Amino acid sequence: MSALAARLNDAAKERVLTVQEYFTLAWNALRFIFARPFYAGDVVQQMDAIGVQSLGIVLLTGFFTGMVLALQSSVQLQQFGALPYIGRLVAGSMIRELGPVLAGLMVAGRVGSGIAAQIGSMRVTEQIDALNTLGTDPIKKLVTPRVIAALVMLPVLTVINDFVGILGGNVIATLLLGLPSSGYWQTVWDQIASGGFTFRYIPNDFIQGLLKPFVFGGIISITGCYFGLATTGGTEGVGTATTRTVVTASILILVVDYFMTQVLLTVFSA
Amino acid sequence: MADEPRDRAMAPAGERDAPDQGAVRGGRQADGRSAPPSSERAGDRPGATASPDLDERTGTDRRLTRPTSVRRAIRDELASDSGEDLVRRAEEDDLGERTAVIELEHVSLAFDQPVLEDISFAARPGETIVVVGESGTGKSTILKLILRLLVPDRGRVLIDGQDITDLSFNEALRVRQKMGMVFQGAALFDSMTVYENIAYPLREHTDLTEEEIEARVREKLEFVDLEPDRVMSQLPSELSGGMKKRVGIARGMANNPEIMLYDEPTSGLDPLTTGTITRLIMKLQRELGVTSVVVSHDIRSAFRMASAIALLAERRIAFFGTPEEMTGTDSKYIRDFLGGF
User: Fold this and answer.
1) What letter would DSSP give residue A202?
2) Which of B98, B203, B274, B318 has its CA 20 to 30 A from that of B195?
3) Which portions of chain A are predicted below pLDDT 70?
4) What is the pLDDT of residue B61?
5) Beta bridge partners of B294
6) What does the alpha-carbon distance between residue B116 and residue B8 come to, in Å, rounded to a whole number?
7) Minimum distance, in Å, between the CA of residue A87 and any CA atom of chain B
8) Which of B173, B239, B249 is the mutation pick for testing A, counting most A CBs within 10 A?
9) Is the CB of B174 inside 8 Å of chain A's CB atoms?
């Protein structure tokens, strides 16, 4: 094999190895949810760090996203004389797409980088090795609590994001466009109902809108833990791990979002 | 020369434990045989008198070929020790037949490049093996192999006679409970206080009550000469380097392990603290009978605390023997390595 082909071969193998290690970590992190010992204290602590501490940015971004959505779409809708339906547009976009994805990206930036930095620092100061020598499985102690916390907290944050976004749309609709508030919320409910119901009471839009953040939570936490555990090279390595986490998690969220949308639309339109 | 010590190190434990005869103490012969009585050696050398010229304190024959400066340095070094250390050294050779606690057999390991090739040595109960060598030669890798944080590409690692190379993750975790490890930077968990750091292994692996845990934490802190009430609630970031090392030692010994491993315990410390830590390691060995493997670049403290020194060079063990043997060697490399010592 020529030298170039050999190098390409090695580079390809390294990529595949990274993917394999990523999925191995994901698999272990998830199955250890049910394995002893349970570090419940760490789970609660992480729920606070991931959920409660992200509340501020979620509220802000959700609100302004809703407002800008209403603002931009009002121009188009006015041309078609469909301004009263602005509630449907804002609600539909937020619940199914923008709420999950934007909350995911915000949290990927804030929480993903935080996880990578914390675990990466522990790696370069040999604290991960110390955990191993003291007989603790670092995945059970560090990774699984963060994954559980993210899986639980991200749907919660997304619901808040959705609600605050729709509220922002309401503000624009009533204050700027002069639409009645009750009419706005009625159209919001119409939009939710139009998606159909499962088990009679659960709107399909909610299922879509909560399944996505559940998956995104897993992506963010596992990506952060993966790059954190793989950190080498001191403080510079920690910085690199942080950057790679945010970039990788964000891209994965957007790509997985597309495929999930494809699947869910097929499932729920059948 | 390089082959002899390695062969001896690779010899089964039984051969090496042949009891010493005669008055020569503190010396294991390179070829595995016990040292002949000094009078025999006297007859080998021209101009030597029949009666041995033994150093009263160490019992070694002064007339063995050694550079005068090195010999004097050793004498000064030994003279600065307390009497207890010399008794320990003398008693060591009466260990007799005992299986090795830690044993590496023909271990080879490579990452992108070979790191270790055909490494073999053993630590008997109560011994302190100091691994020295140039930086980056893989000394810390040996500790990781003993801890089974790494697995050798070839060869075996045995702890208490058990091959740990093929253990599952959980079985390896159990074996690690026999060991205490002190990392180069102490590797204290920076989000926990000193108390919680030392209590961590106790909480993870024992059923001790909180009172018992507190008693044990205090006991270990006092052993390492720290005032419990003053440091227990402090975070690692508030401690000095020497204090961090001592807390690291306290955490390592929290579960009363039979094996202690140290990675560069005196690096980055001032000479006074270096002496303190060295004496602490020796105190652990003396009072608790732990088997220790110390990775160090500090020759002075190595000579103080070692039962045997392993010199790692070019990915192999270039020398394995007592400190006295090391200074008596003919190898130029070892002389250079010891430098002005």
Assistant:
1) E
2) B274
3) 1, 270
4) 58
5) B130, B262
6) 19
7) 47
8) B173
9) yes
Residue of B167, B197, B200 for testing the chain A interface, max A β-carbons within 10 Å: B200
Using alpha carbons, select from B321, B323, B234, B246 the residue that is nearest to residue B280.
B246
Q: Higher pLDDT residue, B49 or B148?
A: B148
Tens digits of residue pLDDT in A32-68: 999 888 899 999 999 999 999 999 999 999 999 999 9
B252 touches B180 (CB < 8 A): yes
pLDDT of residue A104: 95
Residues of chain A with a CB closer than 8 angstroms to some CB in chain B: 37, 122, 125-127, 129-130, 132-137
Task: Give pLDDT tens digits for B220-245.
Answer: 999 998 999 999 999 999 999 889 99
Q: Give the residue carrying structure tokens 């007799």.
A: B96
pLDDT confidence of residue A50: 94
* Cross-chain Cβ contact B169/A130 below 8 Å: no
Question: Which residue in chain A has the smallest CA separation from B198?
Answer: A134
Average pLDDT, chain B: 75
* Beta partners for residue B241, in sequence order: none
Give the CA dihedral B322, B326, B327, B331, nearest 10 degrees.
Answer: 160
pLDDT of residue A94: 93
As given in the structure block, the two tokens for residue B31 are 């070829």
Position A261, amino acid: T
ipTM score here? 0.78
Place of tokens 């509340």: A55
What is the count of residue pairs from A and B with beta carbons less than 8 Å apart? 48
Q: Which residues of B touch A122 (CB under 8 A)?
A: 189
- Contacts with B251 from chain A: Cβ below 8 Å: 134
Chain B residue with CA closest to A121: the answer is: B190
Residues 108-147 of B with CB under 8 A from A: 144, 147
Query: Contact B147/A133, CB-based, under 8 Å?
Result: yes
φ/ψ of B119, rounded to 5, equals -90, 130
Q: With CB atoms and an 8 Å threshold, state whether B189 touches A127.
A: yes
- pLDDT score at B7: 39
- The DSSP 8-state label assigned to residue B133 in this structure reads E
Q: Please check the confidence at residue B273 and state whether its pLDDT lies above 90.
A: no
Catalogue the long-range contacts made by A260-265 (C-beta closer than 8 Å, 24 or more residues apart): A260/A211, A260/A212, A260/A215, A261/A96, A261/A97, A264/A207, A264/A208, A264/A211
Q: Is B97 on the interface with A (CB under 8 A)?
A: no
CB contact B229 to A (< 8 Å): no
Q: List, in sequence order, the alpha helices (H) in B168-291.
A: 169-176, 194-205, 210-223, 228-231, 241-252, 271-288
Query: Which uninterrupted H or E stretch holds A76?
Result: helix A55-80
Higher-confidence residue: A260 or B11?
A260
